[in-house]
Specification:
Largest sheet of chain B: 7 strands, mixed
Number of helices of chain A: 0
Strand content of chain A: over 45%
Distance between the termini of chain A: 39 Å
Structural class of chain A: mainly beta
Order of helices and strands of chain A: EEEEEEEEEEE
Number of helices of chain B: 0
Structural class of chain B: mainly beta
Helix content of chain A: under 10%
Oligomer: heterodimer
Largest sheet of chain A: 6 strands, mixed
Strand content of chain B: over 45%
Largest interface: A-B, 23 and 29 residues
Chain lengths: 110, 114
């Protein structure tokens, strides 16, 4: 089946740092989504990308849809403590179904 | 407030018992979905429903059943046939299946089978 590879699997951040994560696939997809999940809660949609090459921002978050339609990245600028959580990329398959990556866990440096 | 509610938040059951998880939405969405999430992993689709009285199997439907008698409600039953039922279950809904109709998630139910 389809598989999305997210990297890194986990990372530590210090407040104020910029963060970057990406998601790749061996197949082409026409819609890429980024969700954030807080512990014990459901995922919340951050950014949706519908056009190859598209760069979209949502506050301190910026995401890009790769020109090959096989990848996407998410950047977080000037991170704050509430950015901690798990970030999932997802792609749309036939019939508006979603396939999710394994997630990138963001943690705060002690 | 509009949204998706799932109840209960935590559920404990003995092995061999069927259990039903509730999902209700007041967003007037046509489509509803059930996902399973295991620790450290992404979400996997169990069942989805495009419209009332219709539903389709997802990637991991074995051991689960659903019904869609009302637009607002899409309950999931975890049957005794599900070999590893302990997981975090997430319900979602969307306006429909067309492009730009994104899925929004409920808060989840954590099921533990003892």
């Amino acid at each position: 089946g389809q598989q999305l590879n997210q990297s890194p699997q986990s990372m530590f951040i210090q407040e104020g740092e910029d963060v970057s994560m990406n998601c790749t696939s061996s197949s082409i997809f026409n819609t890429w989504l980024w969700y954030k999940q807080d512990p014990g809660e459901g995922p919340v949609l951050l950014i949706a990308l519908y056009k190859a090459g598209e760069l979209t921002s949502n506050g301190r978050l910026t995401a890009q849809f790769g020109i090959t339609r096989k990848d996407s990245f998410l950047n977080i600028s000037a991170s704050i403590p509430s950015d901690v959580g798990i970030y999932f990329c997802a792609v749309k398959t036939a019939g508006n179904m979603l396939t999710f990556g394994g997630g990138t866990r963001l943690m705060v440096k002690p | 407030d509009g949204g998706i509610t799932q109840s209960p938040k935590y559920l404990f059951r003995k092995e061999g018992q069927n259990v039903t998880l509730s999902c209700e939405q007041n967003l007037n969405h046509d489509a509803m979905y059930w996902y399973r999430q295991d620790p450290g992993q992404g979400l996997r689709l169990i069942y989805y429903s495009q419209i009332v009285n219709d539903f389709q199997k997802g990637d991991i439907a074995e051991g689960y059943s659903v019904s869609r008698e009302k637009k607002e409600s899409f309950p999931l039953t975890v049957t005794s046939a599900q070999k590893n039922p302990t997981a975090f279950y997430l319900c979602a809904s969307s306006m429909g299946l067309a492009l730009y109709n994104e899925q929004f998630f409920g808060p989840g139910t954590r099921l533990t089978v003892l």
